[in-house]
Amino acid sequence: MKRFVFPGSFDPMTLGHKDIIERVLPMCDELIIGVGQNSEKNYLFSLDERMNFILETHNKEPKIKVLSFQGLTINFCKNVDATAIVRGLRNPADFEFEKSVAQTNRRLSGIETLFLLTAADYSYISSSIVREIIFHKGDYSSLVPEAVKNSR
Ligand code: ADP
């Protein structure tokens, strides 16, 4: 049973996240989307909102589960008996950061991280850019799935 975990903040979900989810789905039997909730982070959207955006966007996909988690991703992966972690890579900065996290995670838990390269059309999209546009009351509708549009 290939059970992958795609962890993130999803604050909010973007078309970049949706694309990674759709592309990795055929490679696994179950995809657990782990929505992080860490007390030191200031989220724009509540945990419920962040989880619901994903549930609404993928409500026809039985292989997808959306769960929240706190603390270390590898502990969450162990709790749900995951076989691999999925992450997206957009640029060299992502690579440098993700490399050390993935190597540490493998050293500590033996769990592999699978990387999917961002789609050319979405490589510039990030949740932080969407939050910035929201903050300045701009139109972010072309960067997010239907469920996130008009949410702020
Ligand atoms: P985190 O705070 O854990 O980085 P994010 O919600 O920002 O959480 O991102 C979750 C995952 O989605 C990360 O692996 C990130 O690289 C990936 N991701 C975000 N935006 C994109 C995008 N536009 N294309 C591909 N992957 C993306």
Report on this model:
With 152 residues, this protein is of the alpha/beta class. It has a single domain (3-149), classed as 3-Layer(aba) Sandwich (Rossmann fold), CATH 3.40.50. 37% of the residues lie in helices and 20% in strands. It is built from five helices and five strands. A five-stranded parallel beta sheet has the order 3-2-1-4-5, with helices on both faces. The longest helix is centred in the middle third of the chain and has 18 residues, at 92-109. It is globular and about 45 Å long. The chain starts with a strand and ends in a 17-residue tail after the last helix. 27% of the residues are buried. The site of adenosine-5'-diphosphate (ADP) has 16 residues, from helix 1 and strand 4.
Q: Share of helix among residues?
A: 25-40%
Ligand inventory: adenosine-5'-diphosphate
Shape: globular
Main sheet: which strands, in order across?
A: 3-2-1-4-5
| Global mean pLDDT | 97
CATH class: Alpha Beta
Q: Can you name the CATH architecture?
A: 3-Layer(aba) Sandwich
**SS content category:** alpha/beta
Distance between the termini: 39 Å
Radius of gyration from CA coordinates? 15 Å
Q: Would you give the CATH topology? A: Rossmann fold
Q: How many structural domains?
A: 1
Number of strands: 5
Number of helices: 5
What proportion strand?
A: 15-25%
| CATH homologous superfamily identity | HUPs
SSE pattern, N- to C-terminal: EHEHEHEHEH
Main beta sheet:
5 strands, parallel
Which helices and strands appear, and what pairs or packs with what?
Layout: E1 3-8, H1 15-24, E2 30-36, H2 47-57, E3 64-69, H3 73-80, E4 84-89, H4 92-109, E5 112-117, H5 127-135
Parallel strand pairs: 1-2, 1-4, 2-3, 4-5
The structure holds adenosine-5'-diphosphate.
Residues 8-10, 14, 16-17, 20, 87-88, 90, 94, 118, 122, 125-127 line the site of adenosine-5'-diphosphate.
